[in-house]
């Protein structure tokens, strides 16, 4: 059994519904044994900033899916939930990224693990901290990466109360 962390994001349509549906689809997979959710966060768009605010969260799963099978499941969920690819880092109904998979490091561009942009994204680091503060990348904790970001970047991530 392996432990993986996924990052979910959405900024189109009924954002809460897309996050719930994505988590339901993961939980319904017979090879996903457990799923734990972070809090939800409303976040300013990162990268391509001229778009609506996102809702972001992370999940921790225990799974018997191998890394590439997990990636396929994440992509199937994106396809099922109306995801269309238009602009890089642009608006989307749902994005499901593989952030960590056990202690595996992969430099295959089809599946980079740990996800290469975790370190610079408060919208990923903050929900990940809800799940496991001990996670590290290249020997440095996610908490240390978060502290390296500016106050302004951290302030762009606000807890979203249901
Ligand atoms: N850890 C990973 N998780 C998900 N996709 C990945 C990962 N590493 C590489 N990829 C590849 O990235 C490609 C593009 O993914 P996607 O369209 O979701 O990017 P994005 O979400 O727009 O940007 P970003 O990767 O910066 O979050 C996919 O085809 C996938 O094979
Ligand atoms: N706040 C925020 N910004 C983003 C996000 C996201 O999930 N949240 N996803 C992106 C594409 O990977 C680009 N920018």
In DSSP terms, counting alpha (H) and pi (I) runs of 4 or more, how many helices? 5
Q: What percent of the residues sit in helical stretches (DSSP H or I)? A: 25-40%
User: Mind telling me the CATH superfamily name?
Assistant: 7,8-Dihydro-6-hydroxymethylpterin-pyrophosphokinase HPPK
Indicate the proportion of strand residues: 25-35%
CATH class: Alpha Beta
Structural class: alpha+beta
**Annotation, overall tally of beta strands:** 10
The radius of gyration is: 15 Å
What form results from the Cα inertia axes?
globular
- Give the number of domains: 1
Q: Note poorly predicted spans.
A: none
Mean pLDDT: 95
Bound molecules: adenosine-5'-triphosphate, 2-amino-6-hydroxymethyl-7,8-dihydro-3H-pteridin-4-one
CATH 2nd-level architecture = 2-Layer Sandwich
CATH fold group? Alpha-Beta Plaits
Main sheet attributes: strand count, strand direction, barrel closure: 6 strands, antiparallel
Rounded to the nearest angstrom, the distance between the terminal CA atoms is 32 Å
List the secondary-structure elements in sequence, H or E: EHEEEHEEEHEEHHE
Could you characterize the architecture of this molecule?
With 162 residues, this protein is α+β, with helices and mostly antiparallel strands. It has a single domain (2-159), classed as Alpha-Beta Plaits, CATH 3.30.70.560. The protein contains five helices and ten strands; from the N terminus they run E-H-E-E-E-H-E-E-E-H-E-E-H-H-E. The chain has helices at 15-28, 67-80, 122-131, 142-148, 151-155, and strands at 2-10, 32-37, 41-43, 54-63, 95-101, 106-108, 111-113, 136-137, 140-141, 157-159. Strands 1, 2, 3, 4, 5 and 10 form a six-stranded antiparallel beta sheet that branches. Helix 3 (122-131) runs antiparallel to helix 4. The termini are far apart. The protein binds adenosine-5'-triphosphate and 2-amino-6-hydroxymethyl-7,8-dihydro-3H-pteridin-4-one.
């Amino acid at each position: 059994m392996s432990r993986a962390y996924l990052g979910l994001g959405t900024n189109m349509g009924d954002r809460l519904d897309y996050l719930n549906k994505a988590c339901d689809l993961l939980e319904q997979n017979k090879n996903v044994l457990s799923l734990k959710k972070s809090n939800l966060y409303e976040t300013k768009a990162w990268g391509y900033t001229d778009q609506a605010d996102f809702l972001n969260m992370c999940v921790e799963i225990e799974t018997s899916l191998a890394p590439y099978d997990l990636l396929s499941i994440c992509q199937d969920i994106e396809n099922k939930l109306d995801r269309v690819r238009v602009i890089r880092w642009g608006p989307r109904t749902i994005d499901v990224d593989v952030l960590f998979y056990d202690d595996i490091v992969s430099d295959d561009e089809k599946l980079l693990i740990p996800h290469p942009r975790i370190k610079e994204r408060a919208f990923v680091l903050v929900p990940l901290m809800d799940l496991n503060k001990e996670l590290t990348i290249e020997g440095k904790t996610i908490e240390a990466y978060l502290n390296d970001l500016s106050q302004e970047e951290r302030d762009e991530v606000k807890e979203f109360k249901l």
